[in-house]
Amino acid sequence: MPEALAGERKLSFLSHDEHLKLNQITGHAYLNLFAFVEEYIIATAVQHAQAEMHGDHAAIRALCRFADEEIKHQQLFYRYLDAFKAGFGHECAVLQDAAAVADVILSKSPIAVMLVTLHLEIMTQAHYTESVRDNETLDPLFARLLKHHWLEESQHAKIDALELDKLVSSAGPEQIKKAFSDYLDLIGAFDGLLDSQSKMDVPSLETATGRKFTEAEAKEIVSAQHAAYRNTFLVLGMENRLFVDIVKKISPSDAAVIASRSAGLSGASNPS
Questions:
Q1: Which of 7, 12, 16, 18 sits between 20 and 30 A of 258, alpha carbons compared?
Q2: What are the DSSP E strand ranges found in the chain?
Q3: Is the pLDDT of residue 128 over 50?
Q4: CB–CB of 66/156 below 8 Å?
Q5: Would you place residue 35 in the very low, low, confident or very high pLDDT band (cuts 50, 70, 90)?
Q6: Which positions ≥6 away from 117 have C-beta within 8 Å?
Q7: How far is 16 from 155, CA to CA, in rounded Å?
Q8: Left (φ > 0), alpha (ψ -120 to 50) or beta: where does 7 sit?
Q9: What ranges do the domains of the chain cover?
């Protein structure tokens, strides 16, 4: 896992090998989180394809291909997770109940759902181009998996932007306001999931290293993990230039609110 995404931890009580184990546990959770969110993205793509059923045939084909590729990505992630488990030698706890979380996301306004989807798709591209593509220290299989994911997600982000534009063009001011409120609610909920994953990483590391951490050490690990996950999945998406530009065109005032929330998350991830 690239340090830019895993977080440059300074945990003095961990050895070099133990830091490496934690990095590998983080990479495992990273891929599971992508498989996790694919659950709702697949459903979203299918819903948008159904909405075009008697309309733009080119859009139907693009959205159906989008859904098919997301299903493929999810299966690839799960296969890699199985391979990781066999090679790592220990079970690592990860978030479950993807379908239940998908239901919560899909209960929000369609514009909010598409904003989150665009956030994730653009963020994925930045992860690969800025931290993976030229990094020769990574596991080759891990790097290849992320490369193939990036290649298709770059097309998906374009579709997301088009679908978002369709939704926004027919929405009134109150719907736009509700959408951004829902988006920030989902960001908050996602942050809670990342905190849960951070807490799961401690027993996984204890099993992998054969150590029992003190309460203070465990809290420090959780804090470092949460900061890394928060930066990787939330801040890097909210502050991505392309995402910011799109949001500003929809609502400059809501773009400012998102920037403020992102700064707060970034500050919480990097306390002075």
A1: 7
A2: none
A3: yes
A4: yes
A5: confident
A6: 41, 44, 160
A7: 39
A8: left
A9: 13-269
Looking at 175-263, which runs of residues are DSSP E strands? none
**179-207 tens-digit pLDDT:** 999 999 999 999 999 999 999 999 999 99
CATH number of 13-269: 1.10.620
Do the Cβ atoms of 149 and 128 come closer than 8 Å? yes
Three-class secondary structure assignment of 117-154: HHHHHHHHHHHHHHHHCCCCCCCHHHHHHHHHHHHHHH
* Degrees to nearest 5, angle at CA 108 with 260 and 46: 120
Q: Residue 105 CB: number of other CB atoms within 10 A?
A: 21
Question: How far apart are alpha carbons 263 and 267 in whole angstroms?
Answer: 6
> Are the C-beta atoms of 157 and 118 separated by less than 8 Å?
yes
Question: Cα–Cα–Cα angle for 202, 41, 195, nearest 5°?
Answer: 20
Token pair for 93: 């706890």
Other C-beta atoms lying within 10 Å of the C-beta of residue 169: 7
Handedness of CA 44, 121, 266, 92 (dihedral sign): positive
Nearest CA among 140, 91, 109, 113 for reference residue 45: 113
Q: What is the phi/psi pair of residue 210, to 5°?
A: 75, 20
Cβ contact 162:65 at 8 Å: no
Closest residue by Cα to residue 17 from 205, 242, 267: 205
DSSP readout, 70-104? HHHHHHHHHHHHHHHHHHH-S-------HHHHHHH
Compute the radius of gyration of the chain from its Cα atoms.
19
Give the dihedral sign, CA 97/100/101/106.
Answer: positive
pTM of the model: 0.86
- The amino acid that residue 233 corresponds to is F
